Amino acid sequence: MCGIVGYIGEKQAYPILIKGLQRLEYRGYDSAGVALLDGGMKLYKRKGKVSELSAYVSDKDTSGTVGIGHTRWATHGVPNDINAHPHSSPSKELVLIHNGIIENYATIKEGLLNRGYQFLSDTDTEVLVFLIEDILKKENCSLEEAVRLALNEVIGAYAIVVMSKNDPKKLVAAKKGSPLVIGIGEDEYFVASDATPIIEHTKNVVYLEDEEFAVIEPGKKLSIRTIKNAEITPYIQELQMELENLEKGGYEHFMLKEINEQPRSIRDSLRGRMDPSTGQIKMAGIDEFEKKFLNAERIIIVGCGTSWHAGLVGEYLIEELARIPVEVEYASEFRYRNPIINENDIVIAISQSGETADTLAAIKLAKSKGATIFGICNVVGSTIARETHAGAYTHAGPEIGVASTKAFTAQVSVLSLIALTLGHKNGTLSESRYRQLLEELDTVPDKVEEVLKTNPQVKGISQLFKDVRNFLYLGRGFNFPVALEGALKLKEISYIHAEGYPAAEMKHGPIALIDEEMPVVVIANKNTSYEKIVSNIQEVKARGGKIIAIITDGDKEVTKLADYTISIPAIDEALSPMITVVPLQLLSYHIAVMRGANVDQPRNLAKSVTVE
Ligand code: F6R
Question: Closest by alpha carbon to 416, among 573, 574, 262?
C-alpha cells in the first residue's frame, strides 16, 4: 500500500504531485507529504488525507520543477506528521518515499545507531534513507550507486524514489515487490505507484521489474539497471487507460459510480469472448493451456477478500459445470502452509489490483513447484498479470472505491466463461445446457440494469437499519459466497459488524444471536435450495429476527414471510451471484453514507494491499 509519485521536468511539480496523490489515495490515506527542490529542499508532511496536506501547504512556497510525494498506509509507526513520508537523510540533503516493508530494518537501524545516527521517526523507510546517505558519504559515489548498494543490503519489498539537493536534475527510483511505473514525457518524467497520476501527461510508460532501478534525468534517455548492475533496455508500453474512467462522472462517490457501471463492466468482461448465436467461447489464455486445464487433477483458486469470494463462486461453477475438483484458498494461508502442489495443478489467482502481496507470493510458490498459473486480474500490466503463465483480464475498468464492486462481478463473469468452456470441452456439460447458460450469461448485463432500478427501495430499507449494530447474511449454494461478500461490504464501509453464513449452518451457532434487533439478509432467489431457504427464513422469523430477502420477481411465498423484499429478475442459479450481489452492494453503500462514513476511503483500509 502507500502511493508514491514523482516529477522531474520543466513544469511546476507541486500541482502534478498533489493531483497524483489524490489519484493514488485509494492506496492509503493516513498521512501525506511532498518534497520539492528549487535550489533548497522544501518538505511538507501532514497526518490525514491529501486534502489536509494541500490545505496545510496552501500558504507555503511550493515552487520547484522536481518533487516527490507520498500518501501513506501505516505499517511501521502510527500515522502522524513525523512518520509521514518523504523521509530525510541525517544531513537533510536526501529525501525518499517508499511503498513496501523493509523487513531487516531493525538490524540495519541497529548498525546505524551504533555509528551515532539518531532517528526521528519509527518507520522502516527512514532507516533506508539514512543507509543510502551513509553509503554515499563512505563510498563517495553517485546517488544511484549509493541507492544500488543500499538496496543490496535490504530484505523486503520496496518501491522508492530518492531525490537529492546536491543532484537536483535527477531522481532515482527502484522497485521490488511493490509496483512502480515511469511515464516518459517530452523533457520530463513522471514516476508513480500506478499509471493513474501519469495518464493525463503521457501514455508512454515503462514498468520497472523487481530489483531494477532507474536513473531519471530530463533530456536524457531513461537508464535502467538491476541492483546487481546489469543494464536493462527499457520496454516502453502505451497506456490503454482513458482519463474519464478515473473521474466520478457525476456520482457522489466512486463506489456508487462503480456499482452503476456494472452492466457495462460485465458486458466488457464478456465482449469478444463469447457468441451465444454460434455457441462459441474464445479465451486465448484458456485455449493456450487447454490440455493442461482439461487434464488438471485439480484447480486451486487463490485470492484475498472479495477476490477470494469470487473464487468461491468459481469453485461452485467449475465443479458443477466442468466436474474438475477445485480448492479455494486464502492466498495468505496458502503461501505459508506448505501446500502440496505439483505440475498437474492449475492455480487460478484472482486479484483486482494485481498487486496483492499475499496473492503474488502464493503464485510464486505454486510456480516454483511447477504448477501452471492462470491470472484473473483487472489492472492491465499489473505484477500478478505479468507473473502468470496465462490469464484473462476482467476489463472492468479502473476501480477506485476501496470497496470492490464491479471487479467482483467481472471476476465472476470471467469464471463463468472458464467453467462453461471447460465443461463444454470435456463433455461434462450437455450441449443444450451449455447453450442455455451462454444465452443467459448474455442477459446478465441487462438484468443487472434492472436490479439497479431497486436503488430507491434499497435506500428506504437502509434508512430503517442504518443504526443497528449487527447484521447476518445468509445464502446457500452459489449464493453462499454472495452472503460473505454482502457482509464484507457492509462491515468494511459502514463499520457495522456483519457475518455471512451458509444458511443451513445458522442452526449450528449463529441462530443464538437472533432476536428482534437482528436484521438478517437472506438471498432467497428461486434455485435448487429454495425450499430449504424458506425453512431457514421461518427459523429466523420464529425468533423475532427481521428478514430482508432478495427474491426472484413474482415470488409470493417469501414476500409473505419476509419483512422487506428486493426483487431481482429470474436467472439460472449458476449465474445468479452477479445479480444477487448488486442489492447488497447498494445496501452497504446507503447505510455507510447515512452513517456519515467515508465510503470511498474507509478507515484503516487501502485498495491495494501490497504488504503481507
Ligand atoms: C473488499 C476489498 C478487498 C480486496 C482484497 C484483494 O471490498 O476490496 O477485500 O478484495 O484486498 O484485493 P485484490 O483483488 O486487488 O487482490
Answer: 574
